[in-house]
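User: I'm writing a tutorial on reading structure tokens. Could you give me a worked example: one chain, its sequence, then its tokens, then a sentence or two explaining what the tokens reveal?
Assistant: Sure. Here is the example chain.
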Amino acid sequence: MRTAVVKDSPWAVSIGGFRAGGALDPKRIVKEVTEAAAPQLAQLLDADGVAGYDHLLMAAVNAARSMGTGLSVSKSITVEALLYASAQDQITKALGMMGLSKGSKRIALMVFASNPKEAEAAYRRVAGLLGDEDDAVLDLDAAKRERLRKAYGVGDAELEAAGGPDALGRLIVERGALLSLRR
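And here are its predicted structure tokens:
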């Protein structure tokens, strides 16, 4: 778990990853996590759609800014973070890209609170529901790189121009950041 304060916003966010112990019931786990995190706010994502910690941190930053400026699509920081992480303007598409499914084995967790201490406390309350804590599930491996290149439409020429395979995470973050320009 890593925690950051989102500058010029009322939010702090704790971010981490988990390996699920068995088959997930997405609706049940979302409900349980929401209740355990309360009064803080939690967002669960399929970590197979995450291009590293910075991907989720920048989604949180962009979500907080859009909420603060009134340019948000949703009324919830957690849904807005999902939209920025997926670089989508439609919640259904965002959930299709990054939402939990019964097949999800690796989970990303974002907890939003008004300060780091509250974010971390809520994160710890939720952690016991999700399986083994393992932030490595957020990282890019070869198989994930190829899936994410297709999901985000990153071609060979763009990747090479941006600096090669190691630039994929930055390109995905950029797609999320550009979301506000399309609104």
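What the tokens reveal: The chain is about 50% helix and 15% strand. The domain at 2-182 is CATH 3.30.2380.10 (PF0523-like).
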